[in-house]
Sequence to fold (446 residues):
Amino acid sequence: MAFDYDLFVIGAGSGGVRAARVSAAYGAKVAIAEEYRVGGTCVIRGCVPKKLLVYGAHFAEDLADARRFGWDVPDCDFSWPTLRDNVLAEVDRLNAAYTTTLDSHKVEVILERAEVAGPSSVRLASGKTVTAGKILIATGARPQLPDFPGVEHGITSNEAFHLPALPKRVLIAGGGYIANEFAGIFHEFGCEVTVLNRTDVILRGYDEQIRDRLLQISMAKGIQFRFNAAFKAIEKQADGSLKVQLTNGAEMDVDCVMYAIGRVPNTEGLGLEAVGVELSNGAVKVDADNRSSVETIFAVGDVTNRVQLTPVAIREGQAFADTFFGGKPTQVDYGCIPSAVFSHPPIGAVGLTESQAKQKYGAVRVYTSDFRPMKNVLAGRNERALYKMVCEAASNRVVGLHMIGPESAEIAQVAAVAVKAGLTKDAFDQTVALHPTMAEELVLMK
Ligand code: NDP
Fold:
């Protein structure tokens, strides 16, 4: 049977674009549908604009520290509209670059919503139905919203990039990646920030000592935390501010509420259940080849809710293309995926936390380095970095590395190569320190 396309991808984010482009390069006839903007969450309203805001925010500390390094820094003003518009212009540039890449690989870009109409057919919003040998669902995820009266008065990270003005007082719901990253960003811009979480744990899944250090530093900077708290209602006041009522009876007056309580896969209204695609908690259930319960329908990225990280979605898209159009069967290796939280200061980590390693191996050895980076000492910034190495006791193999401090994310990417390669603590110790750096602590740990 002849199909209109060999591959039809729904969703032009990181995973979808990679799968489409590589499959086309292997000679497949490919179309990709996108209802919003080519680039997806990471490029349009996630990692990229967020990281640019993190850079922008960090100047607040850099400018203050510069005075201790002899620079005569006059009182500086920060213009949110300038940064916001420059960031959004960069997003536009990347959106165009992604589209150009797809065009140059002869991928047909269809800028409208698409839904699955059958195991090998897709219906476009315009009403047209097309057929494809394989359909790839790469529709990503969206911010989860809580449910209480007045929830509509809050925003999510999607809207944070477009704020007309910075809020004086901001309340961030959640204690995960987005909450901690935006808490740092808003705080550095001079907003009064409160983080509110349903439990007393921030960054669940990260090493306990590292999380505690971030909490301690964040509180010392002036970010407030309210734990074991939940919303009862939000009312908009005549002056535009928001009156927030919590279930414990407490009330707060703020100018902005931002929800960062996780992301839910975009599977609604895609026609998936009707054709027999099995979902699990709203995510497309796939096997190690990214195949759903329907032979011809596949899924990659956040919509599968495996590991919600861009580089993982890209790997999945690449593996899908290699396997089904490149003749190179490939499965993604999910071991030792490094991750970072771009908080102030950032966290970088790879491998198992101390408690995960204890559960897996029983006996572990833990080495730590708790130090004040040289730059912080001269700057008079009382912020200590913490590095932690977790080793399997029997072999002394490093099974986890966790860091909080300046440039931790950059260091974690390099260190992840050693952890992924299964190197032992001895291999780290045998490596001569590169002095003076912060990363040298990794080879000097006691
Ligand atoms: P996270 O999963 O990181 O954190 C969710 C937070 O919300 C947790 O503190 C959790 O509390 C709380 N929570 C979960 N469900 C509810 C609920 N129903 N009501 C109230 N609170 C709730 O989510 P984010 O939104 O911060 O980020 C989404 C995903 O995006 C991340 O998991 C990550 O994969 C990705 N991301 C990655 C980044 C990076 O790599 N630097 C940056 C930003 C996002 P508790 O744990 O106490 O139960």
